[in-house]
Amino acid sequence: MKNFYTRAAAVALAAMATVAALAGCSTPQGTGGAGGDASSAKIAFLMPDIASTRYELFDKPLFEAKVKSLCSGCSVIYSNANASAAKQQEQANSALAQGVKAIVIDPVDSAAAATIVNTAKAQNVPVIAYDRPIPSVPASYYVSFDNEKIGSLIAQSLVDHLKKTNATGGLLQVNGSPTDAAAGLIKKGIHTAVDASGFKLLAEFDTPGWEPTKAQDWVSGQITQFPGKIAGVVAANDGTGGGAIAAFKAAGLNPVPPVTGNDAELAAAQRIIAGDQYNTISKPIKIVAEAAADIAYKFAKGEKPEGKATLFDTPSELFVPTVVTIDNLNEALVTSGILKVSDLCTPTYAAACAKAGIK
After folding, report:
1. Is residue 38 helix, strand or coil?
2. Which of 113, 106, 120 is nearest to 136 (CA)?
3. What is the pTM of this model?
4. Are the CB atoms for 315 and 291 separated by under 8 Å?
5. Phi, psi for residue 310 in degrees, rounded to 5
């Protein structure tokens, strides 16, 4: 029996040594340990909601096409969390169970997404934060447009317009979701312009889940509270901007005070042509989608891409957006190929398109 236990102990020690050796070979923080044969790699692409139409219409197909161009045998596991952080956690776990070599995630809740990052790191799977950062736990990489810059650009554009037109009154500020770190950056950027504008900030609101209807409800209340005193609205994206515009129209106010936006959605471009929305931001999704696909595939191959910047201790690439108003909409969105005239200039908007020289 003694020999048996001696042999068993030796086997156990050998097994422990093997595990320790494997652990020592793992790449820390999921920053390149995927590696190996990436010719048939699976890459997860986890988007946050359907409130914004961009994810299904643009981000998903553009990302998938770029991955396919880089690796014909690779596949994309796509999921949309429909604004549920818990559902996104389940989708991430499912992707890991399917053996993905990288996760690209636009988090529903930037704080909750830290759990996803830690879980993936424990399995040596890199996580690329997409559009929205994950501040509390560094991801392997972050790809986005410069969100703070977006906020300052849309707000300064509005302030300049109000000063040029000698507008009087104060401003409403409609921010994005309080659980979205990108919304926090946009909010910070907006304040840099609004706080120094000379216009009084009447009130501001963090819109739960970026829901346009919630933005509309809040703005409706402010119209009642500040009758005739609202010079303009700085809205953090096209959805909340559309909600604000709907509130003014429901209140019978025409023309609508200038309202900002962000994302260059088709509906927002049509509102700009019609004179209902003042500006939006063109941040061609093709740029970030393809960049994220390229970074994810490099990680899947075991490479460690270097960041061109650092944000929240995460290697990052931050692209510069473009403000779009009626003055440059044709060039920024139509001739650039982002939007088609046939989609933009429907019968309802045909006369406005002609007036703006869009054809």
Report:
1. coil
2. 113
3. 0.81
4. no
5. -135, 130
